[in-house]
Amino acid sequence: MSGSIREYVREPCPVCSHKQWCGRREDGLILCKRPPMPREVSGFVFRGISNDGATSMYVESVRAFRNGHSKRRALRAKPQRSFDTREPTNTTEWLRENHPRLLTNFDDERRTELAVHLQLPASSLDAMTIGWWKERRWWNPETRRYEGDAGCWTFPEYDAQGHIIGLGRRWPTGLKGQLAGGRRGLSLPTGWRKLPDPIILVEGPSDVLAGRSVGLSVIGRPSNSGGSGLLAQLCRNRQVIVLGENDRKRTGRWPGKEGAETVAHKLETEWNRPVPIAFPPPDVKDLRAWIIELTGDAAQPDTISVHTTILAAIEPPALVWLVGSPDKRGRVSVKVFRWADGPDGPPIHSDILKPDEEPSRRRFTKSLAKVDSQVDVDQIMRRLVALNIPGDESRSTPRTQARVTHADVTGLPAVLLPGGPIPIQQSAEQLGKLLASRERYFVRGGAIVTVSRDESGQHILDAVKPAALASIFETVATLMSLSKSDAGFVERPAVCTEQQAKLIQHSEAFRNALPPLRLLSACPVLIERGGTLVQICGYDHGSGIMAHAIPADEVPLDEAVDLINELLADFQFATPADKARGIAAIITPALVMGGLLGGRAPVDLGEADSSQTGKGFRNKLTAAIYSQTVRTVTQKKGGVGSMEETFSTALIRGCNFIALDNVRGQVDSPAIESFLTEDSFLARAPHQAAVEIDPRRVILQLTSNRADITIDLANRSSCVRIQRQPDGYRFRDYPEGDILDHVRANQPRFLGAVFTVIRAWHTAGKPMTSEASHDFRRWTRTLDWIVQNIFRAGPLLDGHRATQVRMATPALSWLRDVALAVRDAGQIGLWLRASQLADILVDSPAAVPGMPDGSDADDEDVRKKILRAIGRKLGQCFRRGDTVRIDGLEIERRERPDAEQRRTTREYCFRATKSAPDGCAYAPTPNRRGIGANVSTADAGDGPLTASRANRRGDTAGCAYGAPIAAPMRAPNGIGVAPIAPMSHVIPMRADDELEGVCSNGHRYRK
User: Fold this and answer.
1) For residue range 913-939, what is the model confidence (pLDDT) as tens digits?
2) I want to staple 734 with a disulfide (CB 3.0 to 4.6 A). Which of 476, 524, 742, 787 is the partner?
3) What residues pair up with 706 in beta bridges, in sequence order?
4) Lowest mean pLDDT among 61-75, 106-120, 470-484, 899-913
5) CA dist 939 to 211, 313, 946, Å?
6) Mean pLDDT, to the nearest integer, of 790-819?
């Protein structure tokens, strides 16, 4: 039965929360004129579209009916039937399993029938993956029966990452519908990523097929005003035109124009640049009808001419404007852009004016003419008079309706603020859902945050305070309050107070309505979903990841390995294991950000033998692969802001790469050590509430030359030791500049190489080795397998435990500094006394024990203090024997009688150990300078690589065991050592004093 309809006048519609237009029938059927997109609403069952094609019908999921005896009976959903008659229970799983079958059913007969139905050529249907659901019949919500013959065409709808999330259906009778349980998405044609600009944003899949038939770049919106959030992610760096429809109603409403303006305004707000709107000719409804009219009945129409005609008709003027909302004084901000400059073009002019005042318009026009002398002054004046100001409906054609409310003027849904009979939970839930639709406000660690940009353009997180939240509510809703009068409560426009905003912000309903945010990334993130790896771009609600980026490139595995090896070719690592850990440091962030590791990752600790070795540069290089900049945290001896405070602030702002840069002396931070082991970390910043951070999604880096760290921090670190390249070393050149500029210019390619390596590991079944010499064993075993099996490198942690012990032992760390000073002084292999070591330390940057600041080392008393302190330090180092091995050096102590002093003296000899391998797997091959690097013709060739050619090309710098850069000298023990070569490099001496060796790339060199 139908019965009379009671209009929602005093109370809002339970579906759309609006008054006017919507109503309830006597049998309980709700007729909603402004349903949400998608149309599924919690607590209600969507029953389809009424005969007018615009009204949605709903019934309560559990609704009470009264009969003559005042009994209640619930309207329960019927049990699910077979696939042929009912909608799927799990839409995502159903689409994954059955969508390929629907594509198979789309045979030539159905293709021809659809082409005739749409009046388009059959070849145009290849632009989308159309299917045929042969079992599906149309469900009539009025009769609650399936009617008509079985079979309908299906049109997939996608999210911003290209994943199918919904299915549109079209029956041969012309009826349309959506797959229940799915979400409304975009109609993306085949090859949509490579479409040239400008992209025309049309409405529906039929316009997409028509546009692609004549070569237009088109993307379909799910409705006249839907899909703006997905389009904001997908077309962020593209030039777009929103195409409306000529579907003006007799009542005066123009849904096609209103929807196009809504989408364009949302995109302008998100991108902060103008988005033009265009329409077909007045007598043509949409793009498909326009193309049909232009092509006519020609068997082979001139598609190039049609393409040119449409683009010329919808092309915006040379100058496009971005108009802001009016302030209290009626002034608006207008920014002028050149359309030819593209999406990245800056505004050429910006000013604030009152469009209703002629002097203000003339001043604006005169200023614009100074910037661009070719502007038409009269045309600019006419455009200012007809300026469409957001939120100011008085300047445009008003809608014809019985009653114009404050919500109708602003175009925003009305929400009652808490107070009186309105509970906090009700207002909080409505405002939370409205903010969630903007995809700019999230819940992170219990705090409400929004995504913004810092001074460098990087996306960061800002905490939203109640005072700001009160004004933010006005951008998504028309705020109303209930005022008590003689006739009862009356709705009036209101302003949200800070106290009301605080109540709403701390409401559980408000936080549950907002989407979660667990990671803010500037690059795509690779996650595992359903046993497969998925690349996240944009916002993904399931994982809580917001990735502002375009997808990474597809790179073959061999090329991926070469690209990653090329990144580290100009670094001189102490051992092959250090190079392996350097490779692991490049792969680790992708595993950490995507949660693929299943455990914690250690600190990437870069240690160098001297300054200016490239420790911080390596960190920047790693971050550049992920479109990030390293947030540096430094030690502070005084002033406001400790290291822990700065560290917590970086965490709260969503930084993914945090580096403790150039730490010196004692590093003892329990907060940072706790961050590396606990599953959650409570970050606190001044004047902000504490935020719970997931430390498993943050990459922590540390660089140092001479730092004393605790044993706990050492056990939580992966040490990568690098050495300074010799003076005059020639680093690689690229067209963009150095390697860092090259990576930033080709970031999707290098990130694609990292993703390819991870996919290879995932395809192999995520194997791990049995390595157990590190506290973070899942990271150790995973990366050990990757570097050994994919990069053909040596063991990841070879000799790493000894390095950890040395770094956590201040005496051994000091002894390493002494060894470096001895090496730089050219005294390797000589027996030295404490007095000689004191002279070497005074002339080196290493710390001299026992020497007060500002004192003179030549002073007799000071020198005695220095010698006693050096003796105590050396005694601590040699407690367990007369031989100590540190980082490729062997330090031996011996006692010898001194006849002159009549006592026994101690001498120390620093030698390079004989553990260096014959070759290194990481050095460039003789025929490969590097992908993208510039190579001179004089250096090319397949001939033997001499020492002079190696130094000129820089190939030996790819390995710590290349040719020495200075003539070797003979030590008393008979071992030849290159004075500036790495510490662990030993060169055997030939009898004829002629040096011959093998470089890491397999070529011999001769001195």
Assistant:
1) 754 343 333 333 333 333 344 433 333
2) 742
3) none
4) 61-75
5) 53, 57, 11
6) 80
Separation CA 844–CA 823 (nearest Å): 11
Taking phi over 0 as left and psi of -120 to 50 as alpha, with beta for the rest, 826 belongs to left
Please name the residues in contact with 577: beta carbons below 8 A apart, sequence gap of 6 or more. 794, 795, 796, 797, 798, 799, 800
**Crossing angle of helices 205-213/108-118, nearest 10°?**
90
Measure Cα distances from 340 to 114, 200, 375 in Å: 38, 16, 15
Determine which helix (DSSP H) or strand (DSSP E) holds 785, and give its type and residue range: helix 777-789
Structure-token pair, residue 744? 């930033």
- Which residue from 199, 201, 240 is spatially nearest to 224, judged by alpha carbons? 201
CB 519 within 8 A of CB 542: no
List all residues 6 or more positions away from 439 whose beta carbon is below 8 Å from its beta carbon.
229, 232, 515, 539
- The neighbouring-strand residues paired with 32 are 56
Bridge partners (DSSP) listed for residue 23: 7, 31
Q: Which residues pair with 906 in a beta bridge?
A: 895
Reduced 3-state DSSP string for 569-603? CCCEECCHHHHHHHHHHHHHHHHHHCCCCCCCCCE
954: three-class secondary structure by DSSP:
coil
Q: Is 526 left (phi over 0), alpha (psi -120 to 50) or beta?
A: beta
Give dist(CA 61, CA 134) in Å, integer: 29
**CB neighbours of 359 closer than 8 A, spacing ≥ 6?**
none
Q: E-assigned strands of 833-937?
A: 883-886, 889-898, 903-912
Report the C-alpha gap between 326 and 323 in whole angstroms.
Answer: 9
How far is it, in rounded angstroms, from Cα 519 to Cα 537?
Answer: 12
- E strands, 218-269, where? 218-221, 240-243
Provide the terminal-to-terminal Cα distance of the chain, rounded to the nearest Å. 103
* Prediction pTM value: 0.52
CA distances from residue 977 to 392, 900, 963 in whole angstroms, order as listed: 81, 32, 11
User: Phi and psi dihedrals of 408, rounded to 5?
Assistant: -70, -35
Distance CA 657, CA 660 (A): 10
* Residue the block writes with tokens 């939203």: 464
Q: Rounded to whole angstroms, what are the CA distances from 235 to 23, 227, 230, 242, 547?
A: 38, 12, 9, 12, 14
Query: CA angle, 947 as apex, 946 and 951 as ends, to 5°?
Result: 120
Query: How is the beta sheet containing 164-170 ordered, strand by strand?
Result: 131-133, 152-158, 164-170, 176-178
Identify any residues that bridge with 490 across adjacent strands, giving them in sequence order.
483
Instruction: Please list, in sequence order, all residues whose beta carbon lies within 8 angstroms of the beta carbon of residue 960, skipping any fewer than 6 positions away.
Output: 572, 573, 574, 575, 723, 916, 920, 982, 984, 985
What is the residue whose two structure tokens read 């326009």? 290
CA nearest neighbour of 513 among 494, 539, 541, 538: 541
Select the highest-mean-pLDDT range: 63-72, 193-202, 405-414, 640-649: 193-202
Q: Which residue bears the tokens 């570097």?
A: 787
Number of H helices, E strands in the chain: 28, 47
Confidence bin at 81 (pLDDT 50/70/90): very low
Longest dimension (CA), the chain: 125
Q: Which two tokens stand for residue 250?
A: 């007799």
Strands 488-493 and 478-485: antiparallel
Count Cβ atoms below 10 Å from residue 370 Cβ, excluding itself.
Answer: 9
Residue that has been written with the tokens 């500037």 in this structure: 522
Distances in whole angstroms, Cα of residue 311 to Cα of each of 278, 280, 287: 10, 11, 12
677-691, 782-796, 889-903 — which is least confidently predicted? 677-691
What's the angle, vertex CA 625, arms to CA 623 and CA 631, rounded to 5? 15
For the chain, what percent of residues have pLDDT higher than 90? 6
Overall size of the chain counted in residues: 1007
Q: What residue type is 314 in one-letter code?
A: I
Host H or E run for residue 294: helix 287-295
